[in-house]
Amino acid sequence: MNVLPLRHAGFCTIACAMLALVGFDAGAPAALGQDAPLALNRKPLVVGFARQRVEEKMDRGLVALPAGEGRIYVGWRLLKEDPPSADFHVYRRISGQAPVRLTEAPLRKTTDFVDKQPVAGAPNEYFVTDVRDGREGEPSSSARATPAHKAQSYVTLPLQGDYTFQKCGVADLNGDGAYDYVIKQPNVNIDP
């Protein structure tokens, strides 16, 4: 909370109040010729175990979307720990069958792929593996899409029941590397 004594009227009080709201330097009252104390809106110093930047654990963030004309677009993240020469193979699996590798040679210059011949009328499940020194790594998490004639450039999240929502927040809440969705209901401006 900002504490600003208002016993001084005029420009200095207004200027100091504005500076306090944006967290101006602690020397602001003296610099502006004001002798009253000013508690600033600033973040506390970080004291604790984190001596370096805390980085989120991220997964590949694989997404599969209908690309129109019966094709499926597959995209994924390039991770910080991936080497500059990161290569990837793309796989497709249909309802419990063995996965089929879609790339003859590993992809080198991109982190996306368009499956031009997915299995029509069925959910196609995709995953990627990174290739290092000719060896494939562990498969990524998977993503599913069903081919369609119309392209879809967004992910649909079905809600259970007859619900609507007002806002949606995205964050990794449990540290597993995948984003979670926090939905604010009901669809009215009521704060809890």
What is the topology?
Elements: H1 11-21, H2 28-31, E1 63-68, E2 71-75, E3 87-94, E4 100-101, E5 112-115, E6 124-132, E7 135-139, E8 143-145, E9 167-171, E10 180-184
Antiparallel strand pairs: 1-2, 2-5, 3-4, 3-6, 6-7, 6-8, 9-10
C-alpha end-to-end distance: 22 Å
How many discrete structural domains?
3
In this structure, how is the largest beta sheet organized? 5 strands, antiparallel
Radius of gyration: 26 Å
The overall pLDDT, averaged over residues, is 78
CATH homolog superfamily of the largest domain: Immunoglobulins
> What is the CATH architecture descriptor of the largest domain?
Sandwich
Order of helices and strands: HHEEEEEEEEEE
Give the number of helices. Answer: 2
Q: In terms of structural class, how would the helical and strand content be classed? A: mainly beta
- What kind of oligomer do you see? single chain
Beta-strand portion reads 25-35%
- Please estimate the helix content: under 10%
Instruction: Outline the low-pLDDT stretches.
Output: 1-32
In CATH, the topology of the largest domain is named Immunoglobulin-like
What's the CATH class of the largest domain, please? Mainly Beta
Outline, from the CA principal axes? Answer: flat
Number of strands: 10
